[in-house]
Design brief:
Blueprint lengths: L6 E6 L2 E15 L4 E15 L10 E5 L2 E5 L17
Antiparallel strand pairs: 1-2, 2-3, 4-5
């Protein structure tokens, strides 16, 4: 029931937070009565991200009612093998 604009995803010091908030108002007026209904739905989840995750490369997409997050791994820079000559 959420829209793409209802979601908020942010990263702060290795904590990934996903939250959503939806407000709606329905108003029915007749000659004798006025009826207003308010609806408010929200959630918030926080996850600790491992230091192996590249926080700057996190991507989010919302397709057909499914929020999908891509958390890329950091590329480790390894030193090349070094040949040692025997004297």
């Amino acid at each position: 029931g959420f829209e793409k604009t209802d979601f908020k995803v942010n990263v702060d010091s290795n904590i990934l937070t996903i939250s959503a908030e939806k407000k709606s108002e329905e108003k029915n007026e007749t000659e004798k009565q006025i009826r207003k209904e308010y609806s408010f739905r929200s959630f918030k989840r926080s996850f600790t991200i491992d230091e192996k995750i590249d926080a700057t490369g996190i991507e989010a997409s919302y397709v057909n009612g499914v929020l999908r997050l891509n958390l890329p791994m950091k590329t480790e820079v390894r030193e090349a093998a070094k040949d040692i000559t025997i004297k």
